[in-house]
Design goal:
By secondary structure, the protein is α+β, with helices and mostly antiparallel strands. The protein has helices at 2-7, 15-22, 27-39, 71-94, 137-148, 152-158, 180-197, and strands spanning 10-13, 43-44, 49-53, 60-62, 103-108, 128-133, 166-173, 203-210, 213-220, 223-227, 231-232. Helix 3 crosses helix 4 (71-94). The radius of gyration is 18 Å and the shape is globular. The termini are far apart. The model has no long low-confidence stretch (mean pLDDT 82).
Length: 235
């Protein structure tokens, strides 16, 4: 039913048009984040590979490219997304842009469905999502993260995730395969739930990562628009 309902409202467009028009970030800011990622060793431009620092072992490793298990990608991708978020925030500060009025945090919670205001909601579980916090959330998250940063599982259980506070979602599949439409439909189910819960949201972006290939989707209340081609995140 969901496939029939959403499938007829999926559209694609050229990658540059979707990304540039939907996410209008200045080239200077992008270059600043990229340079920060290189200097902090999160990206190796010579090998063209993303890397991450495991908070448990304190060792650097390459971001997984293929695996039989989705769970292999969860922690590395959260660490990397957090590093990019912090670099973006730092670059905004340098540019004099106020980003301190809210806090956000990438969370992996594939086994714990976000809470809902609707009692009859199905317990769907997005792999990774960016959670937005307001008021006292920032201080609570910072304290929890500093105390529990060696154990991401404990951190997830220390915070309460609501669909009302989800900014964007990443759906992960361990490798690129022919079931891409099924993966897109799964991502759409999460984005649609965000729109159901957040009545003032006009649209919700989502990312679909299959192995090393990333597709960008934007859902609104009339359907969804995605990149015509996926692209290699390492290149």
């Amino acid at each position: 039913m969901l496939k029939e309902e959403i499938g007829s409202h999926l559209y694609v467009a050229e990658n540059d048009k979707i990304i540039d028009h939907t996410f209008p970030v200045s080239r200077d800011l992008i270059d600043g984040v990229y340079k920060t990622m290189v200097s902090s060793q999160y990206y190796d431009p010579d090998k063209r590979k993303w890397r991450y620092r495991d908070l448990n072992t304190r060792k650097w490793d390459d971001l997984p490219q293929q695996s039989k298990k989705e769970s292999t990608f969860y922690a590395p991708l959260v660490y990397l997304c957090e590093a990019i978020r912090e670099a973006y925030r730092s670059q905004n500060r340098k540019a004099g842009v106020d980003t301190e009025h809210f806090e956000s945090r990438w969370v992996m919670s594939p086994n714990n469905p976000p809470k809902s205001t609707e009692e009859t909601i199905s317990l769907i579980r997005p792999d990774l999502f960016l959670l937005c916090g307001m008021d006292g959330d920032a201080d609570e998250w910072k304290k929890n993260f500093e105390e529990l940063q060696k154990d991401e599982t404990k951190f997830v259980t220390a915070i309460t995730a609501w669909w009302l506070k989800i900014v964007t979602v990443i759906e992960i599949k361990p490798k690129d395969d022919k079931d891409i439409l099924e993966h897109i439909i799964q991502l759409m189910s999460y984005l649609r739930q965000v729109l159901v819960e957040q009545l003032d949201r006009w649209f919700v972006p989502g990312l679909l990562l299959t192995g090393t290939q990333l597709a960008v989707w934007v859902a609104d209340r009339s359907g969804a628009l995605g990149t015509h081609k996926s692209f290699n995140i390492h290149e």
